[in-house]
Amino acid sequence: MNQLDGVYGDGSTSSPSTGSVQNQVDTSGSGSGMSALKATQEYQQHAGTAYNNLDTELASFLQYLAGNQSVDRDALSQVINNTNSQLAQLGSAAYTRDGEVKVHQILVSALTNALKIVGNSNVNANAVAVEINRLTDQFLYNLVGVDYPAAEGISGASTGSSSAAQKAISVALSEQGKPYVYGAEGPYAFDCSGLTQYAAASAGAQIPRTAAQQYQQLPKVNSADIQPGDLIFPAAEFNNGSPGHVMMYIGNGQCIEAPHTGATVRVVNLPNSFAASRWT
């Protein structure tokens, strides 16, 4: 975990300057009574949304970390509860620069503890650092009543993708560890296009069955414009427009796939060269 601490840094994120409230609150915590009152009122007005959104995103990320592993769900729930408790103690002090850094530190601690519980040694530390920064920014934006700008989360619950895409990604991620079986359409085993079709169906979309059909019959997407949920067809298996493999983009340069016989559903890096289509 010391390696993760080094990656996470000092909390320098892209959070807003916390609006007019921060400008009226002394960063030493000794602002005037009127400034303190305004900060408290602002906090009370927006805290509910900020905490609800953070809980949703944090729970989704912890589910992503756990994958198909059997973990202590009560322990993971406790991580979320402890995080909320620490943030609540910070209160409207989050509007100060020192408070922003403290929010970041609280989330670093939360994710570090979650990684210990999950025991997932395959998680990329840099990707986790990106997610911590994103969660910090989202919380701080929400605390001043501002919607967080569209951005991709590692868990796939991305504000930059449609709700249907988010649902499909969540379902696909929950199938990690299940075996690849040629022709299988779930829920106990999948082939590559069976997984993408199953995930899309969970979001209420009916898409073609095979990888080739999914590429040929769905709208094409420029590789520079892909969004979470899009279907990715690696160039190595493109076969002149009749691809033999498909995966689903989940954001942050990663995809989920049912790869081949002898392997299981897994998260992999986005191929260097690929074609793409969109079903949402």
From TrEMBL:
Protein family (similarity comment): Belongs to the peptidase C40 family.
Species, as recorded: Nocardia jiangxiensis
Name the record gives this protein: C40 family peptidase
Top-level lineage group: Bacteria
SUPFAM superfamilies: Cysteine proteinases
One Pfam family from the record: NLPC_P60
Region spans: Disordered: 1-35
Keywords: Hydrolase, Protease, Thiol protease
Top-level taxonomy: Bacteria, Bacillati, Actinomycetota, Actinomycetes, Mycobacteriales
Span of domain NlpC/P60: 162-280
Compositional bias ranges of the Low complexity kind: 11-20
